[in-house]
Amino acid sequence: MERKVLITDCADAKGLITKITGVCFNHRLNIIKNSEFVDNSQGRFYMRTELEGDFNDPQILADLNEVLPHESHLKLVSTSKKRVVIMVTKEAHCLGDILMKAYYGGLDVEIAAIVGNYDSLKPLADKFDIPFHFISHQGISRPEHEKLMEDVIESYAPDYLVLAKFMRILTPEFVAHFPNRIINIHHSFLPAFIGASPYRQAWERGVKIIGATAHFVNNCLDEGPIIKQDVIHVDHSFSAEDLARNGRDVEKSVLSKALQLVLHEEVIVYGNKTVVF
């Protein structure tokens, strides 16, 4: 039997769970797992319902809309493997971690291609037989460079883009082509130390923890909806280089965990925040 995930986003009201599960029952769909959250400050209801059954009847979503409040947002998506394109610059740790986990089954994902603005990581891509596209940014404008990347990326029709230490700021025009579909790893526990050289900033401030943040990309630098964060403890004996070395382990772990959540449809974006089930 086929499995799908139903995502519900609507105004909060009494009896929503009963109404939604009732429609699922009427369509002979078995509920495997159900999670819900109410944002009382906004009066919004969010629910993730994992379903099993026959989804050939196109009336399912219409019946759900009929019992839900006006202007509800519904998404019924397959649990089949998602496709991603990974964007990189020179650092290998995040890319290598994703490639290894995908290869050995730790991440249920199809890596369609890797795009780099340097060719430094092509040998790593070759080891896993993943197409690598070297698209240099040198000597051309940012819009020209992004258009070249966009053409390659769209040829693979990915579900998501993963910025595995892609060290260039993306323009609003590029981001608009992939709304809430670009996942970035930032080498800092946001909102602290945004922008360049965060480990140097952290060392200069004498921090006692460092961390990493995976988030969706929007038009504000390092301020998109947060998916996953983690930290490790450090002390006064750590140099800026020590912080960076230890931070790389946190970065790759946070990115792969965030990617897993997104691939399994366990993240709902609302405003500049997320619900993570």
Overview of the molecule:
It is a single chain. The chain has eight helices and 13 strands. The protein has 277 residues and is an alpha/beta fold. The chain folds into two domains: 2-78, Alpha-Beta Plaits (2-Layer Sandwich), CATH 3.30.70; 82-276, Formyl transferase, N-terminal domain (Rossmann fold, 3-Layer(aba) Sandwich), CATH 3.40.50.
Number of domains: 2
β-strand percent reads 25-35%
What is the mean pLDDT?
Answer: 93
Largest sheet: 7 strands, mixed
Distance separating the two termini: 24 Å
CATH architecture of the largest domain, by name, is: 3-Layer(aba) Sandwich
The secondary-structure class comes to alpha/beta
Q: And the CATH topology of the largest domain?
A: Rossmann fold
Run of helices and strands: EHEEHEEHEHEHEHEHEEHEE
Regions with little confidence, pLDDT below 50 for 5+ residues = none
Helix content: 25-40%
CATH superfamily of the largest domain: Formyl transferase, N-terminal domain
